[in-house]
Amino acid sequence: MGFHTGAWTVLLVDLSHWFGLDLQTLGTFMTLACVASVPVQLAGGWLSDHFGRRPLLFLGLVGMGLTLMLLTVARSDVVAFSVFALMGLFGGILDLGVNSIGSDYESHYDVPVMTQLHAGFSGGAIGGALFVALGMGGLGWDFRIVYGIDAVLLTAFGVLALLLPLSGRVAKPDGKLRGGFAELRKLSVVLPASLLLALYFFSDSAIENFSSLYLRDLLKGGVVVSAVGVAGFYFASFVGRLCGSAIIGRHGEALLVRIAGLGMFAGIILIVTGGSPVVAAAGLLLFGLSEAPVAPVGFSLAGRATSDRAGLAMAVVSAISFGAYSLSPLAFGVIASGSSYQVAFSTLAGTALLIFFFGFSRKAGLSGAAPVFSSRRQ
Fold first, then answer.
1. Fewest beta carbons less than 10 Å away: which of 31, 250, 279, 299?
2. Phi/psi at 192 (nearest 5 deg)?
3. Nearest alpha carbon to residue 270 among 287, 283, 259, 260
């Protein structure tokens, strides 16, 4: 999943040029894709609590692989919309499955692993971005060759997911359909986690979907510079999540969220005021380093709130998160088209400060100096 995201982020420029999409149309397509995935995620979370996570992994991986294959055989407006819609749908299913498994592991073994799990995603994204740099910058591949390889890998791992053992209750689903919507109404306890994740994904969506365009189109960085910049962003995310795990162990989640908000704010300032690919890339590094631990903290918070229905809880927070993730490219595309990239990126400074202040909320459920998991075992 991480490998695909790294490659997809770098190649988004080539994809938009291939289909002739301007910024506003590109943002609209990405928004519609995310919106389409929300009801599927809600249904998938409820069903996965009763039938297991494995179907989510299979459908997400294989669906994304088959969708990417469309790019190698067709070129039209219908195909462009279909690719974005299906990638959003199947990507949402896969994201839900992976985060539910992470929550299952935390609940089953009583240890915090969500941050490390997301660090693995960042590591894969580094590989995906550098693979694009090697293939297109070093070997002269057409971008569709990279998409084709990505498609084969996704499909292969989807089949492999049917064979891998899963932890906790995932391996033994009960197969019973019980009042899903009654359960859904009880999940107001995940609203703090949903707010934190919404702020995170609004910012992350803009960076993930438009940073490559910013580096390549406006700052004239080229495919290799863009790929290395994106890889650097995900490397910073990888390091940030490992460091975040250490901070949680020593000082708790609240302090980590405050540090993340301030670092994100500083990163945006560099991106907006830098004026060169090097300074903008440095801003991306700082932003990626700072924001990286926020998502796993939010998902872990949601899983702790309703450990007996982690799949449904993850579906609710994922649906809200995807709402923010989908709104971001539309808003960003409209603002960037009407003014500039710099003005559009400036809006993310506000979300960074909101994340900072979230870290001071006593009702959010964030752990303090004594981490939640450590206190459970005492």
1. 250
2. -60, -45
3. 283
2-168+190-367 topology per CATH? Growth Hormone; Chain: A; (1.20.1250)
Instruction: Count the Cβ atoms, other than its own, within 10 Å of residue 55.
Output: 17
pLDDT of amino acid 376: 46
User: Two tokens at 114?
Assistant: 């969500």
Other CB atoms within a 10 A radius of the CB of residue 127 amount to 15
Contact yes or no for 319/41 (Cβ under 8 A):
yes
Task: Specify the residue for token string 């299913």.
Answer: 93
Residue 124 has pLDDT above 80, yes or no: yes
- Give me the residue label for tokens 């903290």: 297
* The pLDDT value given to residue 217: 58
Place of tokens 């999409």: 21
CA–CA distance, 98 with 89 (Å, rounded to integer): 15
Count the neighbouring beta carbons within 10 Å of the beta carbon of residue 374: 15
For residues 211 and 255, what is the distance between their CA atoms, to the nearest angstrom? 28
Per-residue tokens: 375: 């206190």
Q: What is the pLDDT of residues 181-230, one digit of tens each?
A: 445 455 556 788 888 999 998 988 888 766 666 665 555 556 666 677 67
What would the pLDDT profile of 20-77 be if each residue is shown by its tens digit?
A: 777 677 777 777 777 767 777 777 666 676 677 788 889 889 999 998 887 767 677 7
Structure tokens at 312: 């449904």
Rounded to whole angstroms, what are the CA distances from 34 to 2, 123, 214? Answer: 18, 24, 22
CA 363 to CA 378: how far, in whole Å? 23
CB atoms within 10 A of CB 166: 18
